[in-house]
Amino acid sequence: MIRKKNSFFTFIFSLVPGAGQMYMGFMKRGLSLMSCFFLIMFTSVWLNVGPLMLLAMIIWFYSFFDTHNLRSTPDDEFYELEDGYIIVPEFLENISHQKFEKKHQNILAVILIIIGITILWNNLYSIFSRILPDYLSNFLYLFGYYMPQLVIGLGIIAIGVYLIRGKKQELDEENE
């Protein structure tokens, strides 16, 4: 790893999630944090899901304090630190790319379909809104505006039910 950097510039760069880590030479770690932060911000604004911004704030705080913890690490420990992606858990590094791809291909497909439908809906609405009656145009606008939020909400509920069902099955297996 490279040598420690100036504390003033470390502070300035730590204000942007991931930039402080990158400034100190931890490119993979910084890229992970920066990508997560801006992806969550984009998704939150695009889908108008305000509570998602709380995750972005958590990432911001983590990044800020991680930068300053790296800066305060003793020199001998600092030089031994290895750079790595934060968003990739260790167990995923051992799984082959093909196995991971097959397992999560359906999730990615659903996400891409939802994004495509949203883009198509918004563009078609823009084209046809001028020729539709006002009440129908307003209804279609509201439908298109709230549909991504409804889909995300249903997805979160489905994930919660799946997690509860999995935990219940695990407890039932332990009791038997």
SS summary, helix count: 8
Regions with pLDDT < 50 over 5+ consecutive residues?
none
Structural class: mainly alpha
Helix content: over 70%
Query: How many strands, what sense, and barrel or not for the largest sheet?
Result: none
From the alpha-carbon coordinates, what is the Rg to the nearest angstrom?
22 Å
Overall average pLDDT: 81
Measured distance between first and last alpha carbons: 52 Å
User: What's the number of domains?
Assistant: 2
Q: How many β-strands, per DSSP? A: 0
Helix-strand sequence: HHHHHHHH
Overall geometry comes to extended
How much beta, percentage-wise? under 5%
Q: Would you write up a description of this structure?
A:
This protein has helices at 7-14, 19-23, 27-47, 53-72, 75-80, 90-93, 97-128, 134-175. With 176 residues, the chain is an all-alpha fold. The protein has two domains: 7-88, no CATH class; 94-175, no CATH class. Helix 3 (27-47) packs antiparallel against helix 4 and helix 7 (97-128) runs antiparallel to helix 8 (134-175).
